[in-house]
């Protein structure tokens, strides 16, 4: 089990994260927050690339700051915008990563074949990395992060820059990898995690806003989300969350404490909750 | 009984707890040098320089191009010390700069830092290999220059000049890198070139260098070597070192 205990991270006078406490057990966790909310800072602290200014992070009761290689042995990490050597093939790059993960050549070759098949890159195993698409590179990244069969898999904005088809494929892949390990996935795109994450972690104003199941988060907005025609004038305290196309033209999804005239109550989605919290400032509902 | 099984720790958890207590109470002395030796045996030299082979090729190419005109100046005895001082760490400086620059540009540092064999260890091993190659290169350079200059000066004196420059640069660059991070990787070679050019272009300084006795250079080499190895030790053992580079 991974525990984050009252962690604060400061860069000089700037506080990036304040008093964060979390517990992770087996399953997929989605870290959802807008850009600049401190997602990457938290992910980097979990990957021991940064260390807390206050508080501590524990793996099975042991401070990860002092576990060194033992912790890195159970960690799989995919950085946001990761680097690679473009003139090498996925297989060569994975052999290199496997050597630095202290795997023997025989074990490495076996795992590389299995992982490349799992991520659907068996045919591209011997093509140069520079010739692969963004989605394929991201899948190579996942395969590299999985080489040591980690108990903790941390993926920092793994779907950034992927097209919709690749995003779906990626979600399916994460779902397949989630058995018997903790997967922590950061994103600012709600659809990336709403179907695969068992728990959603939200950060706001450098603090932890909530850590709950998607349905629990949505339920807090039940009876407050309405769909209204786009031409209906809105009252104060009614916030537009999004717009879409209905049978009779453009419709708005709004957040309102009282049912609006000509409005139809709709079931809140995680995207509604996200927009309500981060654009309409309705974090009171979630606390 | 079943309830008790749920509450009591498993055998694995008990063993881990005992190991943790023992580790805390009686920490094992870890030899970083033995650890580095084991790593290089396990990983192999090729993997140490994976992805940065082109940097060495480029470093050798640049050195060959620069050494041809430099050799013409070096055979004049008066400039021997100043030129040796500038050229001895050249391969080390160029190769180190180019590999670090490439790692930085390809954005692989962050990722490598989370693998079991940390990037600090890889960097330390690369520094040691580069240092060893540079020592051999300096001996060869001194031998060639000694022959070309008609054995005008002592071979040991030439070696002491070359080694003092090499270890001073190696130790200094690692120390600056530890203090100032990636900025130092770029700045130190430039500062070294500027400082080395003073005696090359200003004759009185060159003459002064030629008069420094061998034991002074040997002392500088020993001090530089001390700083170099202590910084390698810090590089492997301090987690803050790499954070400056990220």
Helices and strands in order:
The complex is a heterodimer of chains A (287) and B (246).
Chain A: E1 2-11, E2 14-24, E3 27-32, H1 39-46, E4 54-59, E5 62-63, H2 69-74, E6 75-78, H3 90-100, H4 105-118, H5 134-145, E7 152-156, H6 164-177, E8 182-187, E9 199-204, E10 207-212, H7 214-219, E11 225-229, E12 239-246, E13 249-255, E14 264-265, H8 270-278
Parallel strand pairs in A: 3-8, 3-9, 6-7, 7-8
Antiparallel strand pairs in A: 1-2, 1-4, 4-5, 9-10, 11-13, 11-14, 12-13
Helix pairs in contact in A: 3-4
Chain B: H1 2-7, H2 11-25, H3 32-43, H4 45-48, H5 53-74, H6 80-87, H7 90-106, H8 109-112, H9 119-148, H10 155-180, H11 182-201, H12 203-211, H13 214-237, H14 239-243
Helix pairs in contact in B: 5-6, 5-7, 6-10, 6-11, 7-9, 7-11, 9-10, 9-13, 10-11, 10-13, 11-12
Question: What would your notes on this structure say?
Answer:
The complex is a heterodimer of chains A (287) and B (246). Chain A is α/β, with parallel strands linked by helices and 287 residues long. Chain A folds into 2 domains: 2-212, P-loop containing nucleotide triphosphate hydrolases (Rossmann fold), CATH 3.40.50.300; 218-281, no CATH class. Chain A has helices spanning 39-46, 69-74, 90-100, 105-118, 134-145, 164-177, 214-219, 270-278; strands spanning 2-11, 14-24, 27-32, 54-59, 62-63, 75-78, 152-156, 182-187, 199-204, 207-212, 225-229, 239-246, 249-255, 264-265. A 6-stranded mixed beta sheet of chain A has the order 6-7-8-3-9-10, sandwiched between helices. Chain A has a 4-stranded antiparallel beta sheet with strand order 2-1-4-5, with helices on one face. Chain A has a 4-stranded antiparallel beta sheet with strand order 12-13-11-14. In chain A, strand 1 and strand 2 (14-24) form a beta hairpin. Chain A starts with a strand and ends in a 9-residue tail after the last helix. The relative contact order of chain A is 0.14. The model of chain A has no long low-confidence stretch (mean pLDDT 87). The model of chain B has no long low-confidence stretch (mean pLDDT 83). Chain B has 246 residues and is mostly helical. Chain B has one domain. The N and C termini of chain B lie far apart (52 Å). Helix content of chain B is 82%, strand content 0%. Chain B has helices at residues 2-7, 11-25, 32-43, 45-48, 53-74, 80-87, 90-106, 109-112, 119-148, 155-180, 182-201, 203-211, 214-237, 239-243. The interface between A and B is medium-sized, with 31 and 26 residues.
